[in-house]
Every structure is written in C-alpha cells, then in structure tokens.
Design a protein that fits this description.
By secondary structure, the protein is an all-alpha fold. Helix 1 runs parallel beside helix 3 and helix 2 runs antiparallel to helix 3. The chain starts with 7 loop residues before the first strand and ends with a strand.
C-alpha cells in the first residue's frame, strides 16, 4: 500500500494549479502597478507611439495567446487515455503551466516596453493579457472537459477527496 504522501488527491491537484495560476496573476499585476507608479511622466497617446514597438507588442500579444492555445489544445487532445488518471492530470498540469507562462510573457513584455517608452498604451496590452489569464483560471469543469473524463474516471475525479493512484 502506498503512503498518503505519495498519492495525489484531486482537491490538492486543483488547489495547487489554482494557486500557481493566482500567483502568476498577482506577480504580473503587482509588477504592472509598480511600473506605473514609478514611471514619470506617463502619457497615453496613439500619435506618439513608436510604430515598431506597437507592432512588436501587438504581434507578441496575439502570437503568445494564440500559440499558447494551439499548443494547449493539441497536447491535451493527444493525452492518451491509456495512461492513469493521475498521469493524465500531471500532463494537464504541465501544459497548463506552459500556457500560463506564455500569456505571462506577453504581459511582462508589454510592461517592459511601457517602462522604456512611458506610453501607457503598452500597459493596455498587458491588461488584456491579465484579463485573459483570469479567464484561463483552472476549474474542475474545465479540467474534466479538457481531459474528456467519462464513466469511472469522471466519478473518481468528481469525488474531490478521492485519492488517485
């Protein structure tokens, strides 16, 4: 019999992934607030934007979000049903973290460009990234749908205090 410390409980899995998600959002948000408060003078002007930086931030934002979604969907779809539920949850957690980090990179890039150019339009892109990261919040339903859990696996997963071997 395995010890409790070697077993993964569904509730702990969801809590750990949600906590990591929240920490990533809090870190990006606090960095953006700090950057805003420490930067002077700040302006919001579409006419005085350095077009190269605007193109870079827009492109990086779109590519980061879209690429993160494509990679996430492709890998989650390919998680084999022959693996145990625990192994599939670990794979889901790993790809979720990669997705979160890709979006977070977009957020930090916008903040860094804001620090360089002092135009708050770049913080707008970071704010969009933070809102999107909020939407990606891991929930039991999203995980269940993503892994296409059915039957016995679904019952096991829905019992939050159930130990997964």
């Amino acid at each position: 019999m395995k010890s409790h410390s070697n077993q993964k409980i569904v509730c702990e899995f969801i809590r750990n992934l949600s906590t990591l998600h929240l920490v990533l959002i809090a870190g990006a948000f606090s960095f953006g607030i700090t950057a805003y408060r420490e930067t002077e003078p700040i302006y919001f002007n579409f006419r005085e934007i350095d077009n190269l930086y605007l193109i870079l931030v827009c492109t990086f934002t779109l590519v980061g979000i879209i690429l993160g979604n494509i990679i996430f969907i492709k890998i989650v779809k390919n998680i084999s049903r022959k693996y145990s539920l625990k192994q599939r949850l670990v794979q889901y957690q790993t790809i979720s973290i990669i997705r979160f980090v890709l979006v977070e990179a977009v957020i930090y890039f916008g903040i860094v460009v804001f620090l360089m150019k002092k135009n708050s339009i770049f913080l707008l892109f970071s704010g969009i990234g933070i809102l999107y990261l909020l939407i990606l919040r891991p929930t039991k339903d999203k995980i269940e749908r993503g892994l296409k859990l059915r039957g016995k696996e679904k019952d096991l997963f829905n019992n939050l205090d159930q130990t997964i071997l």
